[in-house]
Design brief:
Shape of chain A: globular
Number of strands of chain A: 24
Order of helices and strands of chain B: HHHHHHHEEHHHHHHH
Oligomer: heterodimer
Radius of gyration of chain A: 24 Å
Strand order of the largest sheet of chain A: 6-9-10-3-11-12
CATH architecture of the largest domain in chain A: 3-Layer(aba) Sandwich
Number of domains of chain B: 1
CATH topology of chain B: ABC transporter involved in vitamin B12 uptake, BtuC
CATH topology of the largest domain in chain A: Rossmann fold
Helix content of chain A: 25-40%
CATH class of the largest domain in chain A: Alpha Beta
Chain lengths: ~500, ~325
């Protein structure tokens, strides 16, 4: 392969075992000066493990890491950082009660005598943010920032040390299109300065936007490497899942039902959602898109009664209903998948079985006592139905990969026999294989008459899965397009409220 | 071998703590060199009953994701209120017990409502409650403990049925009952779920707040019962008699595997936890170790058990 720069970082025959479980097998990786390297693979393929070894977070079971040709023995991520390798983790690790600036400059605070120079610190932080190309008030407390802004602070924190190798784990998972583009601009800029960038990603867009070379791992082994200009989406995806893979999305409904399952008339939530009219036909999938922060989150949560509508009418099966709490929503056979699976969707410390069972105690019990046999069967059914990969139903759910965790969330809600399914970012941060299975599942459910509303910031998913698409802008529905006719351009126009695409 | 390992790995039964209990008993018997009879051990268990009952309440609150620092003063209050109403008169047992338990119910309700509806930290709410209760009974007694416990009631802590002390029978009966509630009923399961993740519990359409409140109420009622047992044991009113129990209930629960993160812990673990605490105390008394030495040993045991539990959780 052709390489222009000199090699900075090299991992040779790296392996990693956890007990008898081998998660990484004899993988070698090189990273050149000013190069953008993409690391693709399903969840559990060993991407994060590999990057943790490279950056010092894990010690390899065998193999060596070299930097500038010299062998390195990192024993902590601090060693990696000192050597010029910074890792932007997917799990955010910011201090909520500190300002954005303090977080960015953590460990590198400028001093005035013995004390931290707050003014200079925030000036420097603002400088770093400016370099990356985002505007965030450096004095704002992190707890008041949106997920996207936090992600950017996290990136700024890594960049503040001016590393020679910058590693990103799913950098765009909480960014919208415009923010992602800005990030890609930044990555291209620092590559020109000679910084090497490694991006772990599921998203093909990320890979092609800012990387020169892509490496695919599968089941802890190296399977494929190519220059991005010599390959394409389908090839990479097929290497990741290990089979050919053309159309990701199952077919849509031929015709929408005339029966309206759920109707919202002039729904408002404070000043965040304004006069939203929405019709959900029975057995249909409605997609709700738009740029981040246009009221989608508030609308999704209002539908489930978490923060109820402040005005407007909600009709279920033509009857007026008031959904003012999740208790009401569940009574009305509504199910809700939160966009924050870990904080709101799962009981991470508890077993997979308990999680799967947690919404179907009633039918597996007698006089308030849970029946052991019935519940075990219920759990096993759930595992089989969604093909959840786990070693033992008693293992804590936090030990599973993101895709399998999300399947457990689906499994527990399906068991309530919902009639309306409100999905908020149903495939965020999960592997391709699980994504496909979830799309299939959604379609299967609609065939059984379940009506689905999907809130997603993934444009392709929005177009691929929806029968009808509503786009939100500043709390209002700025347009409605049928899924068949939708294109990225039309939706972008509506999202930016710059045109009158569709039938709106 | 691997299969057994796998099975044990996800086993929820706290086997390790029972092994530790056996080890503690073995050390106890060895260091007293046979001068202790099995009935001596039962006697130790008898004195442990108030702690055992109060610790179950603490475990339930910890499982529900909270913490109750008002357990000890609630027990003290029950002692003073019961003794003063009863004043040695067996016919006044019922009103004395009823008034005490109603007060406990109120304490639990207020704790639970403050924590859930006003979103306050359990640590602060229950600490404040503890101080208020203490102030309350100082005011009530004017600093002088009055009254005594009727002989009929003293039976629950000093009586024996056959070879078993009544106190131990009561303790074990409540233990079995609550274990079944926690393990086998929908309510018990929801208690674990709510403790593990209150937000997810709320979004599951559970009445999460009421589940949490019920845990505080249960804890306060169990503290009340423990206060009654303790009163029956000492027989008189005595100011601040139960206050040490707050930290001892937390320690026993933690030794038994309960975690401050919520959703983790079990009464199967707390039971031996209480016994270990009590046997160690007895052992140190027999060996003539000073009060200061006892504190250091207890602290060390708690720290070691927390470390072991942490490690176990990390491995999974």
């Amino acid at each position: 392969m052709e390489h222009t720069g000199k090699m900075i970082l090299e991992g040779q025959s790296l392996s990693k075992n956890f007990g008898e479980n081998t998660v990484l097998r004899d993988v070698s990786i090189q990273c050149f000066e000013g190069e953008g390297l993409a690391l693709a693979g399903e969840n559990g393929a060993g991407k994060s493990t590999l990057m943790n070894i490279i950056s010092g977070g894990l010690v390899p079971s065998s193999g060596t890491v070299r930097m500038d040709g010299k062998e390195c023995h990192f024993s902590s991520s601090r060693d990696g950082k000192n050597a010029g390798i910074a890792f932007v983790h997917q799990e955010l690790s910011l201090m909520n009660e500190m300002t954005a600036g303090e977080n960015i400059m953590l460990g590198m605070e400028p001093k005035k005598g013995r004390w931290i120079d707050q003014k200079k610190l925030h000036e420097q932080a603002a400088g770093v943010l400016k370099e990356i190309g985002y505007e965030i008030d450096e004095y704002e407390l992190v707890k008041n920032l949106s997920p996207a802004q936090r992600q950017i602070v996290e990136i700024a924190k890594a960049w503040a040390a001016h590393p020679r190798v910058l590693i990103f784990d799913e950098p765009t998972s909480s960014l919208n299109k415009a923010e992602s583009d800005q990030l890609f601009d930044f990555i291209r800029r620092i590559k020109k300065q000679g910084v090497s960038v490694i991006v772990i990603s599921h998203r093909m867009d990320d890979i092609f936007a800012c990387c020169d070379r892509v490496i695919v791992l599968k089941d802890g082994m190296f399977v494929f490497s190519a220059l991005t200009k010599d390959t394409n989406n389908d090839e990479i995806i097929s290497k990741m899942v290990g089979r050919e893979f053309k159309n990701v999305y199952p077919p849509r409904n031929e015709k929408l039902s005339d029966t309206i399952k759920l109707e919202i008339q002039k729904g408002c939530v404070g000043s965040k959602v304004k006069d939203v009219d929405l019709k959900l036909p029975k057995g249909a999938v409605i997609g709700i898109g738009g740029l981040e922060g246009q009221g989608q989150r508030e609308l999704a949560r209002a539908l489930f009664g978490i923060v109820p509508f402040t005005s407007g009418v909600c009709l279920i099966d033509g009857e007026q209903k008031k959904i003012s709490s999740p208790v009401d929503a569940v009574k009305n056979k509504i199910a809700f998948l939160s966009d924050d699976r870990k904080a709101e969707g799962l009981f991470l410390d508890l077993s997979c079985g308990e999680n799967i069972l947690s919404l179907s105690y009633k039918r597996n019990s007698k006089l308030g006592f849970v029946k052991k046999k019935d519940s075990q069967k219920e759990i096993q059914d759930g595992i089989d139905q969604l093909k959840i990969k786990l070693a033992d139903a008693r293992q804590p759910v936090k030990s599973l990969s993101g895709g399998n965790q999300q399947k457990i969330v689906f499994s527990r809600w399906i068991k309530t026999d919902p009639e309306i399914l409100v999905l908020h970012e149903p495939t965020r941060g999960i592997d391709v294989q699980s994504k496909l299975e979830i799309y299939e599942l959604i379609r299967q459910l609609t065939k059984k008459g379940v009506s689905v509303i999907v809130f997603t910031s993934d444009m392709l998913e929005l177009i691929g899965i929806s029968d009808e698409i509503y786009v939100m802008y500043e709390g209002r529905i700025s347009g409605q397009i049928s899924g068949k006719d939708a294109t990225e351009e039309k939706i972008m126009q509506l999202s930016a409220n710059s045109g009158k695409g569709g039938e709106a | 071998m691997n299969q057994i390992k796998q099975k044990l790995r996800y086993q929820s039964f706290p086997l390790g703590i029972y092994i530790l209990l056996l080890a503690t008993i073995a050390v106890f018997l060895a260091s007293t060199q046979g001068s202790v009879s099995p009935s001596h051990l039962l006697n130790i268990a008898r004195t442990a009953a108030p702690l055992g009952i109060a610790a179950m309440g603490q475990t339930i609150v910890l499982v529900a994701g909270g913490l109750d620092l008002s357990v000890g003063t609630t027990m003290s209050m029950v002692n003073l209120v019961t003794a003063s109403i009863m004043n040695g008169d067996g016919s006044r047992i019922a009103p004395a017990v009823a008034v005490s338990l109603v007060l406990c119910l109120a304490i639990g309700l207020v704790n639970g409502i403050m924590v859930t509806k006003f979103k306050m930290q359990p640590f602060l709410v229950t600490m404040a409650m503890s101080i208020i209760v203490q102030g309350g009974y100082y005011l009530y007694t004017q600093g002088i403990a009055r009254g005594s416990i009727a002989d009929e009631m003293r039976f629950i802590s000093s009586g024996w049925i056959g070879i078993m002390p009544v106190a131990v029978i009561i303790w074990v009966a409540i233990w079995i009952l609550l274990s079944i509630v926690l393990k086998k009923t929908i309510y018990g399961r929801k208690l674990y779920l709510t403790g593990a993740n209150p937000a997810a519990s709320r979004l599951s359409g559970f009445h999460a707040d009421w589940i949490t409140i019920s845990a505080y109420v249960l804890c306060a009622l169990l503290a009340g019962l423990a206060g009654l047992m303790l009163s029956a044991y000492i027989g008189v009113a005595s100011v601040d008699i139960g206050n040490d129990y707050t930290l001892n209930t937390v320690a026993s629960s933690v030794i038994g595997g309960a975690a401050f993160t919520g959703g983790i812990g079990s009464l199967e673990g707390t039971f031996p936890g209480v016994l270990i605490m009590t046997i160690l105390q007895s052992l140190m008394t027999i060996l003539g170790i000073s009060e200061a030495g006892k504190f250091i040993c207890q602290g060390a045991v708690i720290a070691i058990m927390v470390a072991i539990n942490q490690r176990k959780a990390g491995k999974q």
